[in-house]
Design brief:
This protein is an alpha/beta fold and about 800 residues long. About 45% of the residues lie in helices and about 25% in strands. The strands form 6 sheets. An 8-stranded mixed β-barrel has the order 24-25-27-28-29-30-31-32, surrounded by 5 helices.
């Protein structure tokens, strides 16, 4: 539905306009254009009429947003929503005069924007429908003269229709007046007095009457005062009509327009030649056909060319014989969109010498029919890619194995996993991630044989069944075709991506004869392909199962290591240029393995990140770091800052903020001295990540981005989220000062950080030239082996005393 809503953005700040366009596109809306001035906005509206205009008030040009809104309302009556940072009374008063559909102050969330657009669209549609209904209702009342009344020489004569349709007087006006609702009596009396005393005046009034059956009826009184030969006396003539049913109908229509607007039936009147005569608004809305498309023509979906001669004759023969026909047809809207419709055709009774007419009622049942088709496919096909799902792919694999057993042939099973797919989801959102999955599925289908079966197991995992192969070399060719077809760039949301995948291969009968085992073996081989550097394939080998078992064993060992307190923290100093001293340290985990000795984080983090174990280990690091910081403060190191890495799983933990608050209180640590380092993936628009970052900032905890530049940062996050420091990844430092690209990237990061008032720490400093180059560009802190490798806690006080003297010798 959102995709049919066209929106024009009027905003003089290009960056804000582009960001707004991105957000609207993400929400599923169609942006027809962006204008920085009123003149440009009016020109764009003339080119393509939008459904909504998002209007900034202070814009470029001779007109401000309010003046532009005035002109648009006069010409086109388009809903206007003001998006502005201004809320002064004078501005708001001027804006209110244009009757906007919304006034929202910057900044605002995607959800707030989406809600106000949806409410505005629905309000505009309801306003339009109500206006049309009221006009039709008024005309019907004027035409339905169920009774007349007259006042002449102060004598009232009221007329009404009896059950036979004859006009009869209401002899007792006073008695009738007593049945009028008490709250309406004075209004009716005043209405009649006004007509009696004001020559040439007209009016109408609707009021309630309590009938003998204890029902409340509605009546409407119309009247006009005419001059008579007696200058002192006015003659009043008018109509009295019961409007109970009309009023109830109007109320029901208003309710139906709100609750069932998508189920409203279209009604069409056809002339004696079965040609279009007129239709209601619902018909035009359902079919997208306009009056000029249909005037004096057969309905496009009721012609013999569309229905076929047999169906065409069947329908109209039934109408001629039985006065009606109803049934389902499949057709197309004016915009060529396919539609399923339920039609009811009726013959309108006609008197002698009157032209025969037909009424056609149409209901759009496309959603119902598509839902039925989806339900029938849901059990066996993936709803996104339309590929066989796990249930169907496993069934086909079993059938293929049975055939291969009979034919003594070979089968290959390819387990495919997209590389770094989570990064796309985290960067662009799941909707664009779904688009990537569809692109990938389409490309793979194109390079496979018709006899091969491609299915989607879950997420970014696919499986291919390749029957009737001659040897394993045939599977290599298939794997290479898949890798090659995915090597071409894919453009999503105006961003170019190079997809790749890792493929694991198992073979029947070489590896197993059971379908579940073949899939599991191919899955295991796929992880081996990833370990080779991704964008690769690997055949299953029994040693891979042993490797997987080792992985599970390592996870169990880590769990026991946590319980047995085998983890220790080492600390790497961070040197401040301006203060010429160590101002902070980064806490880095090590594993004192009882057999293998001291192990690095590479032996801990990759395994821990696959489960909740990373949260438990991360919390242990926080507790140990805070305890150590308390000890250093007791030794006189009162201003030393400690940095702790927080994983994305840990950041999503709802208990993190309370844990840190308790640790700060327990160890009497100022919040400013505990810095949390997060990766760029934590800055994406996941509500839980953003919420927890804001909660941590409310405690006074400084947040830094670790390995900045290696992920997919949304630059607006640097402005809107509570980030205080960027850490330049060592991959950009390694080539300084000889690699021009590394130098340019580092300089760009530092320049941006200075403009955003962010601190910068450079990691991986190993040479004097690197330190000198970054120092000249204004880098605030250095961290790396040039200063010190990570060391046990007891060595930090010594480094704090001695390192400044060493640094002075470098002269930077």
């Amino acid at each position: 539905m959102n995709g049919n809503t066209k929106i024009l953005i009027v905003e003089d700040e290009k960056i804000v306009a582009l960001d707004l366009k991105r957000r609207l596109t993400k929400l599923g809306y169609q942006v027809t254009g962006m204008a920085a001035s009123g003149e440009k906005a009016l020109a764009l509206v003339d080119q393509e009429l939008p459904n909504i205009v998002l209007m900034d008030i202070h814009i470029q040009g001779t007109m401000d947003g309010i003046e532009v809104a005035n002109q648009l309302q006069k010409i086109h009556n388009i809903p206007i929503i003001y998006l502005t940072a201004y809320s002064e009374e004078k501005t708001v008063t001027r804006a209110k005069a244009t009757k906007p559909y919304g006034y929202i102050l910057k900044p605002f969330s995607d959800r707030e924007l989406h809600i106000i657009i949806q409410v505005s669209i629905e309000r505009f549609e309801n306003d339009f429908q109500l206006k049309k209904s009221e006009e039709h209702f008024r005309l019907a009342l004027e035409a339905a003269r169920l009774g007349t009344w007259e006042v002449k020489n102060s004598h009232e004569i009221f007329m009404s229709k009896n059950p036979n349709g004859n006009i009869e007087p209401i002899s007792n006006w006073q008695g009738f007046f007593l049945t009028i609702d008490d709250s309406d009596k004075q209004k009716v009396a005043d209405f009649i007095d006004k007509l009696r005393n004001t020559r040439g005046s007209t009016g109408e009034i609707e009021f309630r009457v309590h009938a003998d059956s204890n029902k409340t009826l509605w009546y409407k009184l119309y009247g006009k005062a005419f001059a008579t030969s007696d200058a002192e006396v006015n003659q009043i003539v008018g109509v009295l009509q019961e409007t109970t049913e009309s009023r109830l109908t109007r109320d029901r229509l208003a309710q139906a327009a709100t609750v069932f607007k998508y189920a409203a039936e279209g009604i069409v009147i056809l002339n004696k030649n079965r040609q279009f005569s007129c239709a209601n608004n619902a018909f035009h809305s359902i079919t997208q056909f306009k009056l000029h498309h249909l005037k004096n023509k057969e309905l496009p979906f009721l012609t013999n060319q569309t229905l076929g001669d047999s169906k065409y004759e069947e329908i109209w023969q039934n109408v001629d014989r039985h006065d009606h026909w109803c049934g389902e047809i499949s057709t197309f809207k004016q915009n060529k969109e396919a539609m399923y419709a339920w039609l009811t055709i009726g013959l309108i009774p006609a008197k002698v010498n009157e032209e025969q007419q037909y009424v056609v009622m149409i209901s759009d049942i496309t959603i119902i029919r598509e839902t039925q088709e989806q339900l029938s496919n849901m059990a066996y096909y993936d709803s996104l890619t339309k590929l066989p799902n796990r249930m169907l792919i496993m069934d086909r694999l079993q059938l293929a194995l049975s055939k291969a057993t009979r034919d003594t042939s070979m089968i290959g099973v390819l387990f495919i996993d997209l590389d770094n797919f989570k990064r796309i989801n985290d960067t662009l959102g799941h909707a664009h991630g779904d688009s990537m999955l569809c692109y990938v599925a389409h490309r793979m289908v194109a390079v496979l044989r018709q006899s091969d079966t491609l299915g989607r197991l879950s997420g970014d995992e696919f499986i291919v069944i390749v029957p009737d192969i001659e040897s394993s070399e045939s599977l290599i060719k298939v794997a290479e075709k898949i890798l090659d077809c995915l090597s071409q760039p894919v453009v999503i949301n105006n961003m170019e991506f190079l997809p790749s995948c890792s493929i694991g291969i198992s073979v029947y009968p070489d590896h197993s004869k059971h379908h579940d085992e073949l899939v599991q073996m191919a899955d295991t081989a796929m992880y081996e392909a990833k370990n080779k550097g991704r964008n690769n394939y690997a055949f299953y080998h029994p040693s891979l199962t042993q490797k997987a078992v080792h992985y599970l064993t390592r996870e169990r060992e880590l769990h026991h290591a946590l319980i047995k307190n085998e983890f220790v923290l080492h600390y790497q100093p961070q040197f401040s240029f301006s203060q010429r001293r160590i101002t902070g340290v980064e806490a880095l985990i090590r594993w004192q393995h009882p057999v293998k000795g001291l192990l690095s984080p590479a032996e801990i983090i990759p395994v821990a990140e696959t489960s909740r174990l990373i949260v438990e280990i991360g919390n242990w690091i926080l507790m140990e770091a805070c305890k150590q910081l308390q000890q250093w403060r007791a030794e006189g190191l009162n201003n030393l800052r400690i940095a702790v890495n927080i994983s994305i799983r840990q950041l999503a933990d709802k208990h993190l903020q309370q844990l840190i608050a308790d640790l700060l209180k327990q160890h009497e640590i100022p919040a400013r001295l505990l810095e949390l380092e997060v990766t760029e993936s934590c800055l994406q628009n996941e509500v839980i990540y953003i919420s927890n970052l804001e909660q941590l900032e409310s405690l006074g905890i400084p947040i830094s981005i670790d390995d900045f530049g290696t992920g997919y940062s949304c630059l607006s996050s640097l402005k809107n989220l509570p980030i205080r420091r960027l850490k330049i990844d060592q991959s950009f430092v390694k080539g300084i000062p000889h690699d021009d690209n590394d130098c340019a990237i580092a300089a760009a990061i530092l320049a941006m950080a200075q403009k955003l008032n962010l601190q910068v720490t450079a990691e991986g400093i190993e040479t004097y030239d690197q330190a000198y180059f970054l120092g000249k560009l204004g880098c605030h802190e250095l961290q790396g082996y040039l200063l010190s490798k990570p060391v046990p806690a007891e060595q930090i006080p010594f480094l704090i005393r001695k390192l400044p003297d060493r640094i002075d010798a470098y002269d930077f």
